[in-house]
Amino acid sequence: MKVAVIGAGRMGADHISRLEHKITGASVAAVVDIDLARASAAAESVGARALATLGEALALPEVNAVLIATPGFLHEEALLEALAHDLPILCEKPLTPDAASAWRVVQAEVALGRKRIQVGFMRQFDAGYQKLKRIIAEGEKGQLLMLHCAHRNPDTLPDFTESMLITDSVVHEFDAIRFLSDEEIASVQVRRGRGTSLAPEGIDDPQQVLIETESGLLADVEIFVNARYGYEVATQAVFENGTVNIGLGEVTPSFIERFGDAYDVEVQRWVDAARRGEIGGPSAWDGYATAACCEAGVAAQHSSGPVRVELADKPELYR
Ligand SMILES: NC(=O)c1ccc[n+]([C@@H]2O[C@H](COP(=O)([O-])OP(=O)(O)OC[C@H]3O[C@@H](n4cnc5c(N)ncnc54)[C@H](O)[C@@H]3O)[C@@H](O)[C@H]2O)c1
Ligand SMILES: O[C@H]1[C@H](O)[C@@H](O)[C@H](O)[C@@H](O)[C@H]1O
């Protein structure tokens, strides 16, 4: 597979190196970045072409897959362009930041008639989350009763806005909770309490996000994006007969170290599935459903109570 990677920032650069050095069955053919110097540096390291637009990359005859790692608000345009070429796509999370744009992407894929988009929700490939999913499914500790989640980042990029606490960060918990429970999320509530003095002007941080699934499973999420001491993502699952803990005390400089193995598995699964004409992980429907949760979450940041998640009917393609 000859991949065009769009966005050569933190995540794009990491995926470029991964595709080149760890993944079998794929290599990087083109690197696209609006910052051409950045594209050139990344492209040079793997012997690929550096380009300024996705259109130029898609015009190269050898390019037959696309990995999107630009900021989330730019994903829709790139997704629609790559879909129009009927290429396999790995799109970093979020699929798009809001439900309406995510639904347009789903509709475009439905019109194409086959699943081409895999969304980069890497926690589904993390060994800890996989083990927890198995324990829940096999019922060895009884029924799952509650989830307590902590999601801490040391700091944020300069253009990080308050809604991105939800759309950029808690989107991972929406994904993880849907993955673990095999259910849709019904409502989201956000509470603000005492905040850190170390957050940029205009951002209340941390926030507490309260989530309920369709069957009444409750989850609480502490989202704290200026935690300074490091990156820590933890989940405690409470069962009728015990608890399971993932990640608590596993402090790394960033997501790159914490989830490095998960990204490797995610990208390898994408490549293997794409070569069979399939996807190997979360779908555009999962991207849409989590975007709908984000939309409820952003509304909840400005409401006092829970906000219901509104979902369209699931198209046949994803059933
Ligand atoms: N799965 C994860 O754990 C994880 C971790 C980090 C980031 N992400 C996601 O990856 C994506 C990128 O995040 P990042 O942290 O690498 O951001 P970043 O800002 O480090 O990199 C983004 C890159 O996109 C480029 N870019 C911006 N506009 C462009 C355009 N119009 N055309 C081409 N290139 C353009 C920028 O120049 C930059 O190099 C986001 O969707 C983010 O949510 C996922
Ligand atoms: O873009 C990043 C990335 O998705 C990380 O996995 C997450 O922990 C951060 O909160 C987010 O800002």
Automatic annotation (TrEMBL):
The protein's name: Inositol 2-dehydrogenase
Entry keyword annotation includes Coiled coil: no
UniProt keywords, alphabetically: NAD, Oxidoreductase
Domain Gfo/Idh/MocA-like oxidoreductase C-terminal, chain residue ranges per copy: 251-308
Function of the protein: Involved in the oxidation of myo-inositol (MI) to 2-keto-myo-inositol (2KMI or 2-inosose).
Record domain GFO/IDH/MocA-like oxidoreductase: where: 129-244
Gene3D superfamilies: Dihydrodipicolinate Reductase, domain 2, NAD(P)-binding Rossmann-like Domain
Family: Belongs to the Gfo/Idh/MocA family.
InterPro entries found in the cross-reference section: Gfo-Idh-MocA_inositol_DH, Gfo/Idh/MocA-like_OxRdtase_C, Gfo/Idh/MocA-like_OxRdtase_N, GFO_IDH_MocA-like_dom, MI/DCI_dehydrogenase, NAD(P)-bd_dom_sf
GO biological process per UniProt: inositol catabolic process
Organism name: Psychromicrobium lacuslunae
Top-rank EC class of the record's enzyme: oxidoreductase
PANTHER family attached to this UniProt entry: INOSITOL 2-DEHYDROGENASE, PTHR43593
Complex formation: Homotetramer.
EC numbers: 1.1.1.18
Domain Gfo/Idh/MocA-like oxidoreductase N-terminal: 1-121
Entry's Gene Ontology molecular function annotations: inositol 2-dehydrogenase (NAD+) activity; nucleotide binding
